[in-house]
Amino acid sequence: MTDRARSIVVGVDGSSHSAAAASWAAEDAHLRLRPLHLVMVDNNWARTADAEQIVQDLADRCRMQSPQVTVTEEVVPGHPAEVLISHSTRADMIVVGSRGRGGFAGTHLGSVSSSVAIHSSCPVVVARTEAGATGPVVVGLDTSPLSRHVLEFALEAAAVRKLGLVVMQVWRRPEHDDVFATPITLPSPADIDEAMRRRLAEQVAGHGEKYPDVRIRKVAQHGHPVSALAEASRKAELVVVGHRGRGGFKGMLLGSVASGVLHHAHCPVAVVRIPSASD
């Protein structure tokens, strides 16, 4: 079997959504000098020839789109999410469509993309049938030092596309601690906003030196993270968020944030696994 290490792997099913994912991946493979591998999961051996023709046709379209990219393809049995998660241990990136045709083959790709995003060992991009705007890359960060992995992915994505990068940190003012009989005194929104701006500046400091051509804009604002990132996605080419892996999203409300952004973004979304401190 051909070595898939460092390939961009795309889950396809013959739907327009998976075709959009393959097209996005072919362009990214060209920009980042990676091989491209298309995977179609089909457990019905009676229609294997049809599945092979579908993935072959899509691979040929990718070769025409990005002739410099090495493109391979395969049809395999199994569960779609499990197959892609297995590939993720050696792949550079997994790319899926936002939903399938009730195929892939026979499973709704929305559930597949969600499962792969949670459990993948490498970054996952959920593509859209509609192209993102010609705008910057947008990344949402929490306050964890380990979120630098998300920032580094976003910086590289912006650099290869020759785009700017918007780094966002969105905070919500707590009401009060219900443990106490009386509300506790909270910092003013202005004080929190200023503290978040300082913290964000500290997080970003030094990371841009590796990508001097990427113009970085820092945004720290009060609001709901999902709403803010979804709104920013209207004018973005790619939105990047992080997750903690190992069965779920955590941190910065990242359970709801990553899931919410995947559901409501208007452009492709990259989900980057944040390693634990013990990794």
UniProtKB/TrEMBL annotation:
Residues 6-128, 136-273 form the UspA domain. InterPro entries: Rossmann-like_a/b/a_fold, Universal_stress_UspA, UspA. It comes from the Bacteria. Pfam families: Usp. Coiled coil: none annotated. Belongs to the universal stress protein A family. This is Nucleotide-binding universal stress UspA family protein.
